[in-house]
Design a protein that fits this description.
The chain is mainly alpha-helical. The protein has a domain of 37 residues.
């Protein structure tokens, strides 16, 4: 709104020094500072009241909807963050802090049984998988690997009879011509 540079501020200071005088200048600056502080406080209070009225009217919901519509990736990532924070909160809520258990002694005993049984089953499963892997290795070594059949190129076809028929055709036409001549000579 107001754009005051250093030169304008220096000019205002010189005029204030001449008009007010050096003795009353600190009091005037204090009064101006109090006035500016009150004006900023009133502006802050007005802004806060307007924001509260906007929140009551639901403007923040509309603003959030517009933000989500304009940037769907950001809103999707916000939802993922909310879900992970919820998951972390629920996962951490049941864990005891400082080493003390939040479960009753009966429930703690049951939880320990379940944990021990799960660990036992996991070790059994790993042992079974290792045994199966050990069995599979010798079987793979014994069985020879089958090679894919190699296709042989197709054999060349013998030359067509067209080259062989040309001399025969010449002979046939020569015989016909000879028979025609002999037929004409007899007639």
């Amino acid at each position: 709104m107001f754009d005051l540079g250093w030169t304008e501020l220096l000019l205002i200071g010189i005029v204030a020094l001449i008009v007010v005088g050096p003795k009353d200048l600190p009091g005037m600056f204090r009064a101006v500072g109090n006035f500016v502080g009150k004006a900023k406080g009133m502006a802050r209070e007005f802004s806060r009241a307007m924001n509260e009225a906007a929140d009551d009217a639901g403007v923040s919901d509309v603003t959030n909807t517009l933000k989500k519509a304009s940037n769907p990736m950001s809103s999707a990532m916000d939802e993922v963050k909310k879900a992970t924070s919820f998951t972390e909160q629920t996962m951490n809520s049941g864990k005891p802090k400082g080493g003390s258990s939040t479960l009753s002694p009966e429930r703690q005993a049951q939880a320990d049984k379940i944990r021990d049984k799960a660990a036992e089953k996991a070790t059994e499963r790993k042992a079974d998988e290792a045994a199966k892997a050990a069995e599979a290795k010798p079987a793979a070594k014994k069985a020879p690997a089958k090679k894919a059949p190699v296709k042989k190129p197709a054999a060349k076809k013998p030359a067509t009879k067209s080259t062989a028929t040309k001399p025969a055709a010449k002979k046939a036409t020569a015989k016909r011509a000879a028979t025609k001549k002999s037929a004409e000579g007899k007639a």
